[in-house]
Amino acid sequence: MQRWIFALLIGLLGCWRNPAEAEPLPRVQAPLGEAQPIAPGFRPAPPLPQIQLNPPLPGLRRLVYLSNGHIEAAHGLLLVPQSERQPARLLSLAQQLVQRAFAARNSLAVVDVSLYQAEGYAGFGGPLPLLTASVPKARLEEFLRLRPENLGLYDHLWLNPNEPLPPTRRPSRLAETIPTYEGSPQELQEQQTLQETHRQKGPLRGSGLYYHGPPGSDKVALTFDDAVHPLYTPLLLDALGRAGIKATFFLIGRNAEAYPYFVRDLAQAGHELANHTYHHVRLVGLPEEVVRDELLSTNQLIERLTGQKVRFFRPPGGRYDAQVLRVARELGLTTAFWTDDPADFNNPGSNVIVSRTLRYLRPGGIILLHDNAQETLPALEKIVQKAQARGLTLTTLSNQAGW
Ligand SMILES: [Zn+2]
Fold this sequence. Notes:
about 400 residues; alpha/beta; TIM Barrel; Diaminopimelate Epimerase, Chain A, domain 1; 2 domains; five-stranded mixed β-sheet; 12 helices; about 35% helix; binds zinc ion
């Protein structure tokens, strides 16, 4: 199928799914690398298994768990009435939830909790949680001994210092299949020329763009978008550690803010941290100062948490234009895309994720996966094995670039 027809179909499907997200016309699309076929429709993720607490814990919205084939993690989401949002009460509720989750399921290695204010709770994109914590089994006793006056002793706990605010921008959960440049036909032509140059010669340092790694290299960049996440990140960290692989994680600023300890864990494990905007918003068409704020606030957050300077940025949905590229470059960021996208966010099944990824695996390529895609975890081990069997090394963008 012609790529533009393909893009049009995706665009139409997007409009059909959510009229509020319809794109202004006309738009031009720059095909990049091999755009992969999308999943047959947008499949919801298979429901995660739940842990039932008996008697039930009031306000517990869900308590789910998942294995990466080696360890099991659980995540409990608890809604707390505004009248109970004192630190002492929040800590006590978190401790009850963690303790009861471990008691109910002996095989859990880690229990993560997110406590939100019940009034105004709106899921992802809504107000940030009031308190979050991550508790490995070996640290359960330490966590249960915590008191409000010594919360700071536990490094995997975050207490929201602010009043919960309404979301400032509508987040997007986009089909991130094809990077789309929006601009004049002439600009589009320039982008296509640049992409082709990168493909043949590798990335041009200082261009502010990263479409392809050095083609003669045996290195393939492994990238995860939409990090961090209270259920998946610890499982992914564990899986990557077992495989001895370092990857680049594109962080959503608001998630990094609410789960700062996972950001530090990623950095300490040697992974590269990159910018995926603060609110996960589509940047094209936003005022320049909003684009700058989305990028700058996320850069500052990551640097404050880890001391790591942020080098790469990826626009949500792969939507970009001249303004987005210019603002990113002014902030010292290189805008990075991908060549290999199995559309894991569509939940096509882990075997499909493996086969799609392998189909386009190549020296200098860039794999796009998601930190929060359920079927990616079981796919990862096979992707790593097959890449190694082909003599390819999965690594971070910076390592691949050699910058
Ligand atoms: Zn994203």
